[in-house]
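quick one before i forget lol
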Amino acid sequence: MNPENSRAENGQGPLLRLFYKFGAIALFVLLWQLACAAGLAPETFVASPIVIAKTLWQYATDGSLYRHSVISLSRAFYGFLLAVAAGVPLGFLLGGWFRNFERVMGPLLYFLSQFNPFALFSVFLLLFGIGEFSKVAMIFWVSIWPMVHNAALGVRSVDPLHVKVARSLGTGKLRLLWKIVLPSSATYLFAGLRLAAGTAFFMLIPAEMMGASRGLGWLIINAQVNYQIPKLYTGTLAIVVFGMLMDAFFRLLERRVVVWKEAKCQP
């Protein structure tokens, strides 16, 4: 009998997996709570996990957390969606399929990707005002570059032999893209999706500083201005949780879609 199977049968396998995934987080939260209880972390700057949990429950039950979350998630979703819609084709164009486009546009896109998004706040405000579009545009700006980079890497990772064989069989460009390039670059594309989603949530707080009156980022900024420490940590925790859930979703989707990757790893 395989020893891994025997451990899974007596329950040790799943328990060990849970420990490896959440053990360090649980220990960190425990030490955090003990430090707050012992007075090592002053309440004026650090809220204890118990206080944060109570505040989170309060905002969840009165509906305010839901309202702010819906606003923030919609902004992150639209910015992320636009980044994927533009980043994947750009990455494919830069991946070597269109040499002239890569030579001409590659340096420009690399130059643009080096701009610090925080330094562009005033530019976005001047161009788009303080409405919803400027917030979505800011999230789009930071999310598109991981998508472009990983899509280009995915195209470059395609085995040239597969492409030559397909072309020798008379496969057209669109079919070649669908049957060869897209499956071969799927791992890189999913990595780009996870990074783009992570940066979209990362940019929520500064994006919602620009004239917002709702959203998790506004909740955090408002808590900071009014010195409401538990509220500040609660909003931050909500954004972290949403980011982790999005990352877990794309990892699960990758395992469902990229089935040949699992098959290649089998002994």
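fyi The chain has two domains: 1-41, 46-265.
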